[in-house]
Design a protein that fits this description.
Layout (H helix, E strand, L loop, with lengths): L6 E4 L3 H12 L4 E5 L14 E2 L6 H17 L14 E5 L2 H16 L5 E4 H7 L9 E5 L3 E2 L2 H14 L3 E4 L3 E5 L2 E4 L4 E3 L2 E4 L5 H4 L6 E12 L7 E4 L1 H7 L5 E8 L4 E10 L8 H14 L8 E11 L6 E4 L6 E5 L5 H17 L23
Parallel strand pairs: 1-2, 1-12, 2-8, 4-14, 12-19
Antiparallel strand pairs: 3-7, 4-6, 5-6, 9-10, 10-11, 13-16, 13-17, 14-15, 15-16, 18-19
This protein binds flavin-adenine dinucleotide.
The site of flavin-adenine dinucleotide has 41 residues, from helix 1, strand 2, strand 13, strand 17 and helix 9.
């Protein structure tokens, strides 16, 4: 018979998987429960861009820390995870965006992140398929790409090798006060419960706010060497910041398979997962404006997913406000693949009473959030 688990993790997306690996590596007895299969949530729909972001100091801290953790892990990642240190090219279409390139460059350089400003010709040399002329770009060579479902599979496999158990197809109905109640009536006891249920986390932990933010992606057939970097328009930042309007931005990723992943869109209030033809058309039109040759490629699949978004765009990592016996690890919006490994470190430090590598306060679920209302 299995010993009772010390930690039960609800959710086998990339965040739950990273927590399972980290806690099992610390010698804790871990059980992961998912109502579906691993990666059936946002993780299976994501792009897998591992990217340092600078929307706030707290966002920078967790993305940078996590990127370093991915780099530390990269030698262990199997080929299926498709780790690709391709870097990011943030392209500027006008002088206003070029000012943003320079601001971002200074910000990164002051914090030890390697970055390089490219002029119009250098952008063309770096990515010949971009339309000309573009004003310039910021190249961030340390950013990378992974294939999220296989990255999650890898983390779960490592956790399993360290003794963790993973069960799927079992919805959790309620958590709290040291118990996990499954929908079939089974009750499990655990010293620590981690709510890593992504956008469904508020259904299990009252008092937290996470809203789904719909996104569309398109993947093409194989066109090796079409693209060298993850290329993102600087207008993406305006799109990612908008908390109300539907938005699209040019964001393309080279996959190791030779496929091109084309994004991205953001919609609040869109609850159903069907492809929205009008937003898809806007998204592709935007991509063709920046990279006209994309229009001649063959697309093989279109899908949607929901980013788990919080009001202040930072994840929730720490004790649930209504039940401190539950630790929340959810609400990573469009950065959960990037920040999964750092989230696991912060959760682990809180369980073990250790000092984390970065301060946890900005991510505590009990924090005051600015009232940028969700719609
Ligand atoms: C279109 C798109 C593009 C993205 N691109 C990127 C990117 O390039 N880089 C990046 O860093 N991030 C990206 N993201 C964001 C990233 O996908 C998410 O932040 C991340 O996957 C969240 O992981 P998670 O484990 O918290 O949630 P999920 O992956 O949603 O996992 C939650 C799990 O909990 C399970 N669950 C829920 N409720 C219950 C219950 N009651 N009982 C049992 N199990 C339950 C679900 O089945 C699910 O498997 C993107 C997201 C989208 C939608």
């Amino acid at each position: 018979m299995n010993k009772p688990s010390e930690v039960v993790i609800v959710g086998a997306g990339i965040v739950g998987a990273a927590c399972a690996f980290e806690l099992a590596a610390e010698g804790l007895r871990v059980l992961v429960i998912d109502e579906g299969f691993p990666s059936t949530g946002a993780t299976g729909a994501a792009m897998g861009h591992i990217v340092v972001m600078d929307d706030s100091e707290a966002q920078f801290a967790i993305t940078r820390y996590s990127q370093i953790l991915w780099d530390d892990l990269c030698d262990q990642l199997p080929a299926a995870v498709e780790f690709d240190p391709c870097g990011t090219l943030w392209v500027a279409a006008d002088e206003e965006e070029m000012a943003e390139v320079r601001r971002k460059f200074d910000y990164y350089r002051e914090r030890g992140v390697n970055a390089e400003i490219l002029d119009s010709q250098q952008v063309r040399d770096a990515e010949p398929r971009l339309r000309a002329p573009l004003t310039g770009a910021l190249r961030v060579p340390g950013d990378s790409v992974v294939y999220p479902p296989c990255a999650t599979g890898f983390l779960l496999q490592k956790a399993r090798e360290l003794g963790a158990r993973i069960i799927h197809g079992r919805p959790v109905a309620a958590i709290g006060a040291g118990t996990v109640r499954l929908a079939d009536g089974t009750v499990l006891a655990a010293a620590f419960i981690i709510n890593a249920a992504g956008q469904s986390a508020p259904q299990l932990s009252r008092g937290i706010s996470i809203k789904p933010r719909k996104g569309h992606l398109v993947i093409t057939d194989r066109y090796p060497n079409f693209l060298r970097h993850q290329v993102v328009e600087l207008g993406y930042l305006k799109s990612a910041h908008s908390l109300t309007a539907d938005s699209v931005a040019f964001n393309v990723q080279p996959r190791k398979t030779g496929q091109i992943l084309i994004g991205s869109s953001r919609q609040y209030g869109a609850q159903n997962s069907t492809v929205d033809e009008s937003i898809l058309a806007r998204m592709l039109q935007r991509a063709f404006e920046y990279m006209p040759d994309l229009n001649s490629l063959s697309a093989i699949r279109v899908w949607t997913g929901f980013r788990p978004a919080t009001p202040d765009k930072l994840p929730l990592i720490g004790p649930s406000p209504e039940d401190p016996s539950v630790l929340v690890a959810a609400g990573h919006e469009g950065l959960g693949i990037t920040t999964s490994l750092a989230t696991a470190k912060l959760i682990c430090a809180q369980i073990l009473g250790q000092r984390p590598a970065i301060p946890v306060q900005p991510y505590l679920p009990s924090r005051q959030m600015t009232a940028e209302a969700h719609v």
